[in-house]
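Data deposition worksheet. Section B asks for the primary sequence of the deposited chain exactly as it was used as input, without tags or linkers unless they were present during the calculation. Section C holds the resulting structure in token form. Section D is free text for depositor observations; keep each observation to a single sentence. Incomplete worksheets are returned to the depositor.
Section A, Depositor: J.P.
Section B:
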Amino acid sequence: MQGKNEKKSGGQTYKEQAYQQIKDAILFNRFRIGAIYSQESLCKELGISKTPLREALLELQTDGYVTFCRGRGVLIQPVSYEKARDILESRMLMEPLCAQLAAQRATEEDLAAMKQLLTSLQEGLPSEDGQRLYRIDHGFHRAVIRTAHNEMLYRFLDVVLDHYLRFEVKSVYNNSIDAQKVYREHQKVYEAIAEKNGKKAFKAMETHLKNSFARTLPEYWTK
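Section C:
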């Protein structure tokens, strides 16, 4: 039986690999929010053995993604209206600040990383591969946050961005017009950071988030 300390390739334990597989399945809607799955069905669906699966589920329960339902299975935890609002407010308050700090602190390596993500996003738009494009999209946001060079902000917002994916309507990249708008908004954030214009970077990120929330989450964002 696979134990939690056994390693897969790349240095991950079986539990860590199971955690990431289940989390990705939740974030990208392979598992239905509000549905209850047996542990046996999860093992079969993901090709995971029972011990690392259960260890991963226990951690996912602590992190708010699942809940154990005695005698029934595992509930994919819905996001309450209040929690969704908290997540949107956290992003709106903190990401523009990170963009402003990034404009002040960006290194050449930081700028190159953001530019590469923008290029990947632009090149990927014709594919309309929503899951891939959302990974790049959130990679760009994480790159901006990382460029603020504030570890506490990064650790907090890294969690917030994952939970945001749980309830965001992931349709924007299926629409070529909206997808191009998202790309241009990201580009404006990058350009302001590259220009070292903190005020402009703050505004560009704030505008992008307001537009994003209005496009995909109007029921939560009415400001």
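Section D:
The longest helix spans residues 81-105.
Residues 13 and 53 are 12 Å apart (CA to CA).
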